[in-house]
Amino acid sequence: MPDExxxxxxxxxxxxxxxxxxTVAIVDEGASRSVEMRRNLYAxxxxxxxxxxxxxxxxxSDGGGGSGSGGGWxxxxxxxxxxxxxxxxxxxxxxxxxxxxxxxxxRGGFGAFxxxxxxxx
Amino acid sequence: xKREILQPRPDWPAKVAALGLDFHTNDGEPYWWEAAxxxxxAAEIDVIEEATETLxxxxxKAVDRLLEASDLGRLDIPPAYWPWIAESWRRQDPDVxxxxxxxxxxxxxxxxxxxNADTPTALIEAAVVQWYWLEEVKPGCDQFNSLHEKLIxxxxxxxERASRGGHQTSLHLTGFFKELEDRRTVEYMQDxxxxxxxxxxxxxxxxxxxNGSAFTDLTETAIGFLxxxxxxxxxxxxxxxxxxxxxxxxxxxxPWKMVLSNKAILPVLWxxxxxxxxxxxxxxxxxxIIGPCIEKPxxxxxxxxxxxxxxxDAGNAHRGQVYQALAPLPVFDRWHALIGSWVIGGKxxxxxxxxxxxxxxxxxxxxxPHYFT
Lengths: 121, 373
Fold this sequence. Notes:
The structure holds two protein chains of two kinds. By secondary structure, chain A is α+β, with helices and mostly antiparallel strands. In chain A, about 10% of the residues lie in helices and about 15% in strands. The longest helix of chain A has 7 residues. The termini of chain A are far apart. In chain B, the strands form six sheets. In chain B, strands 5, 6, 17, 18, 19 and 20 form a six-stranded antiparallel β-sheet that branches. Chain B has a four-stranded parallel β-sheet with strand order 8-7-11-12, covered by helices on one side. In chain B, α6 links the parallel β7 and β8. Classes of the chains: A alpha+beta, B alpha+beta. β5 of chain A pairs antiparallel with β9 of chain B.
């Protein structure tokens, strides 16, 4: 008896996450230009919590780069340009005086062509 | 190869949307079309499979030759990136997938029209939706489609490779999410990567950050491995492009793939393998192609700026154009049918068919399922 020809289709096509991306935010219209983001560095937790709610203060800073150093704690990233900040941007902190320094990160350095052409596939 | 007329499932929109194809209709016109299907013989599928793997092999030889000779100028790739691309090839950075567009009528050898080697789409409909269609509509038949299994297997291979190299096995996936098709394709890729054991995070291409020493996600976590559904030729020319040269991220598709997704690879292939039965004459010089031909820009996508030139028509005066001898798509019921033949991990993995009233396939051309017996 000859061997049966093997099927050339997948035996099972199971999906697990279709629909989950509904939670992914779509970027703003202006986000295709690089935006400077900062986060403050603090000597300790108490200093950070003078600027932000406890839930936004985290220990450790291994991101490297940035313009400053020396903080054992850091707050959330915020836009350095207040006029372009999103509605939920946490801002530079309540006091802005208890920070040791800040780190810088940039977003929006990719996506300009997609934004301009708005084509895909 | 033939086209069959069918009665669509009455609830097909809901069924295909539930599988992730919620872009099944565009401007009132169905993109997913199951009022017809294409039927092949097993022998025809063998021909497509063999041609696909042969073409992939030829393409790898072309990459090797171009990078060996540092001859990327004809591909309009900025010279600053040449050594970085060559290093990606030398390291054998792993690729995942690509899709050849083939002209095939079931009689003559399949002809390569182009290789979408960097950002191929029409993946969900080929891998998932037509598979479920077959289960329900043609349950006794086979389909050239092991895309889903092969994608999971390939991501497993990449994960094991990362583990062996002591690298993290978390994967970020990105694309231009304002395009629903791109977003859904990235979601699907996330799904198969998850099933292969990767820990995954999605973010829009514009959300990728740069902190001076690493690309980062929205939590400022450094990105180690990235799947991107966003063309290399765009990334290189954007603000963060120069940071890529620091080679901080393993990216799928890898940099060397941009050599193949460029239409300028077509003249290279013809120069290297003249007369090959799966290739068409191609040149940067319109005068070198006798008779009618297709004019396409090096970096065109989805039929944009593609022109059909008659035998006496002149080409575009601008540089960066490729001229390819015309291989008319077979016509069934006045529909021009194009075969998208997928490669995963270097192996032929399945096909998807697109059809259009126009001889040039575009992103609006509808997708039609297939089977074979």
